[in-house]
Each structure stands twice: as C-alpha cells, then as structure tokens.
Design brief:
alpha/beta, 8-stranded parallel β-barrel, 8 strands, globular, binds 3-methyl-2-oxobutanoic acid
Amino acid sequence: MGEPKITAQHIRESKGHRRIPALTAYDHPTTRLLDEAGIPLILVGDSLGMVVLGYPDTTHVRLEEMEHHVRAAARAKPCALLAADLPAASYEDPEAALSSARRLIAAGAEAVKAEGGRRIEGQVRAITGAGIPFLGHLGMLPQHVLEEGGYHIKGRTGAERDALLADAALLEAAGAFAVVLELVQPAVAAEITQRVSIPTIGIGSGPDCDGQILVFNDLVGTYPWFTPRFVRPKLHAFTSMREAIRAWADEVSGVTSQAT
Ligand code: KIV
C-alpha cells in the first residue's frame, strides 16, 4: 500500500509535533523524486520564472505558465500536498484571486499561495471561503522586488516587526493553513512562530520556524549561476553533469576513446 495522502489539514496539525521540510518542483520527475524522498509539502513556486524559464525575477510569470507546470507536477500524483503560487497580477482583487486559484486547482494543485497579509485580506478570504487551502507568504515578497529595489531582510525595525505580526495574525484568522516567512529577521520569525497557531515555514529566516522551504535547484545545484546567501547546497549536480557532458563530447569528437 502507498503512503497516506497529505492534506493541508495535516500540514496545519504538524505544528508542535513535526518540523516541515518543503521544496519546490516544477515538473513531473522532480515532484516524483521529492515525493519518494518523503517531502510532505511540494510547491510549484513562481521561482519557476528564474530557475526554469530564464526570466530575471518572478514578476514575469504568467498564470498559463503556472498551469502548464502544475499539470506536469500533478501527473506525479504525489502523496505530498501539492501547492502552487498565484503569479504576480493574477490576484489583484478577490474575484480575480478566486478565478486564478480555481484554474490552478483545476490544473492539479491542492492549495495555492499568494504574497501579502492585510493588503490581500479580501483575496485570501475569497479563496478560503471557497474551500481552497491557502498558504500565506510574508516578509520579503519577490513579486514586489522591483518596487522594493532588491531582496531585503524584513523585520529589522519595530514598525516592520509590528506589521509582520499583524499580517501573520490576519492570515491565521482568514484561514491560511500555514505561512511562508521569507527573509524575516530570525528573532521576529521566532516570535511569529510562537504567536500564531498555524505553522511558519521559513526561507532565509533562521532556524526557529516550524518548517523550512527551499528552491529545489538551490539545494542540489541545478541553478549554479545564482545561489542565495542563506542556502548551503547539499549537492553540486550541474558541476558533475557538466563534466559528464564534456567527457561524452570529447569521446564523440575523438579526443578520447569513442562513445558508443
Ligand atoms: O516561488 C518560490 O519558490 C517560493 C519560495 C517560498 C520557495 O515562493
């Protein structure tokens, strides 16, 4: 018999019992691999834009592109909960948010994520009110990188700390099953983790969150041209792959013994 299916409710109930390791995937084999490795939460993130599609940031990713990759990931039929990002400009108001969320669910996602707290309260309530599991995202919001002029740590001032706490409380009240904290000052991430009843899943936010999420490509070195400061890759896969490709090319060109 296969492993039991993981739901948003299971992730929510992990708080205080088990830490949550989460990773991104954008295709069928990676989703299958992460699922076989026992990762309980897989995100088809809009980081897709940089690590797969070659855009400079996530603001260029379109809903159609997310749907395409969600379909591929969903074909792996993971036991893990499969969440997907609502891309920039796909949730400008509650009606658009619900319609975009429904499209990702129809493509095979089992939960959706969007960036923001009180600013998108109507959108979050429209999504959770329709019974669609919602994953929050606070701190550095990559979809706002252009307005913010870069990827900056949040929670360094008292005002930012207060805003993050208020946003996290709002997401909890609006029915989010967990919240990603990206580049949040570690002491503030720890404080949010203590204050809310839903799990916090950190990325570059210190060790005291209820879980950690990383972009898969950063973890295994399949996007070596840029690695965020807080990531310590467990593998440098592209380095080994580059060597394998060169060895094969040398064989073909007759530099070394012939390839078969
Ligand atoms: O798009 C993404 O990959 C994310 C991160 C939190 C991992 O949102």
